[in-house]
Protein 1
Amino acid sequence: MDLSSNAWENRYLKNDIGWDLGEVSTPLKEYFNQLENKEIKILIPGGGNSYEAEYLFKNGFKNVFVVDFSKSAIENIQKRIPNFPSSQLIHGDFFELENSFDLIIEQTFFCAINPNLRAAYIVKMHQLLKSKGKLVGLMFNAPLNKDKPPFGGNKEDYLVSFKLLFNIEKMQACYNSFGNRKGRELFVKMLKK
C-alpha cells in the first residue's frame, strides 16, 4: 500500500480519483450555508480538487486554506479559481503543517490516510485548531477496505478515539449523503477541548 506523495500525484495524473464528486457534497454545502462569520480561518486537509474550497471562496470566505500531497490537485484548484490566493494552496504534508485555524473540514481525508496514522491525525487536528475551534465534516461508518483507501471505520471507534481531545457535539448518520455514500457516512462536529 503506497500512500506517498508520488502515489497520490500519480492518481491525479491518471484521473484515478473515484472519491472526487466533481462538486461540493450536499452535507458540507448545507453546513457552509449556515456559517455567518466569513472571516474565520478554514483548513481543508487532503483537499484534492477541493470543490469545498471553491464553494467557500465564491461565497465570500477568503481565509480558506487547502493542503494536499498532490501538486496536480493544488494546480487544478488554481486553474479553476485563478483569483484564489496561491499562498493558501499548500502542496505538502498535513502532518508537517504549522498554522492555526477556526474550522477544519473533514472530507475523504481521514479515510485516505494509513489507519496507523489516525491517532496522530487526532493530535494534529487538536494542535492546528484555535481555542474553541471545530472539526466538521463527513466520516465513513462502514468497514470499506483493509489494504487501500478508502479505509473504513465506525462510530464506536471514533467516539473513543476523539473524546480525549474533543467534545463531540454531533456524530450521527448523515441524512443527505451523495450517491453511493448514502447510509455509509456520519456527519461530525467536534469542538476542541
Protein 2
Amino acid sequence: MEHIDWSEIGQATLDTLAMLGGSLVLTIVLGLPLGVILFLTGRGQMLENRLANGALSLLVNVLRSVPFVILLIVMIPLTVALVGTSLGVAGAIPPLVVGAAPFFARLVETALREVDKGVIEASFAMGAKRRQVVLDALLPEALPGLVAAGTVTAVALVSYTAMAGVVGAGGLGDLAIRFGYQRFQTDVMVVTVVLMLVLVQALQMIGDAVVRRVSHR
C-alpha cells in the first residue's frame, strides 16, 4: 500500500458519491415521466398513440445503444454549454443523466406493464379520471418495481461514473485510470475496485430493503 494517499482516496470517493447522487436524482426526475408516457401511449393503453410512442421509443433506443464512453465525448460541447465545463463532477453529470435516463425509462415502462389491468379498470369504474388513475392507482401498485428499477439504475450509474474518469471527471474511476492503470500502481487499483464493490453492494442492499418494505404496505 505504499502508493496509497488516503486523503486522495477519500476525496475521490466523495466525488463519486456526488456524481452518483446528482445524476440519480435527475435521472429519476426525467426518466420516470418518460417511462410513464411510454407506457400510457403503448398499444391498448389509455393514451394509445402509435406515432408518439414510436418516436419516444426510437429516441430511447438510440440513446441506450450509444456506448457511454462515446456519449461522454460526443456530449462535451453540450456539457460545456450547460454547466460551463466538461471536467470534474459537474462535467460528468449531464452525460450520466443522458446515458441513464433512457435506461431507467424502459425499466419504468416494464414495471408499469406488470400492474394488473384490473386495478386500472376498477379505478375507471369508480369514476376516477386519467390523472387520478395514474397517480393514485398505477404508480402506487408499481412502486416495488419502480424502486427495483431505481436500484438497478443506481448500480449502473456507479459503473458509468468509473468510465467518466476517462475524460477527467474525477472520482474513483479517474483515480484507477490515472494511478492504477497509467502508472501501474496496483495497490491503488485494488483499493478503488474494492470501494466501488462496497458501494454497489450497499446500494443493492438498501434497494432490496426498500422493495421489501413497500411490497408489504
